[in-house]
Prior knowledge:
Shape: elongated
Distance between the termini: 74 Å
Number of strands: 8
Structural class: alpha+beta
Bound molecules: zinc ion
Strand content: 25-35%
Number of helices: 4
Amino acid sequence: MALEPDRGMAHFSIDLLELSPVAxxxxxxxxxxxxxxxxxxxxxQPSPGAPGSLDLEAQRRGSEVLVRGRLAVDxxxxxxxxxxxxxxxxxxxxxxxxxxxxxDRAVRDDDDIDVETYRGEQIGLDALVREHILVEIxxxxxxxxxxxxxxxxxxxxxPGLRDVDERIGVSAASSAVPDPRVTRKES
Length: 187
Ligand SMILES: [Zn+2]
């Protein structure tokens, strides 16, 4: 039985030997098995429902492989206001140039294209897909644009919240004024 240590790990991989200078199409499902693994430790979850999709074309020139396509996948983040699940629809283009790992090649300093490496005869795309998902997650995901946040019952609301706000405002303003003694000490 031939061992294929790298191949078993990758959910999305392209066989180098299938490629030519003519672009070849690929279509992958982005399913929950991949997402659970890729999103581990990020606080994100796969969204239940249909798997996402990764539609690509790949072409090879010598040992360099150009991959470009479109990623569409929904994931669940935590709403920044109410902490309930917030669905994030990731829809993004991806483009990357794969070069053999360890090849003595000057990586082009080109902002428009990721330069990635591959080993052996498989172009593994898992990490690239993960990066593209994570970069599309907003800093403050919302379950809906007008999410009011956690509703606090009226009897819990402290009276005179306004006074508290004013005190904070005053203290912030006064701390912005440099203390002359501190200034003297520093100089
Ligand atoms: Zn919310």
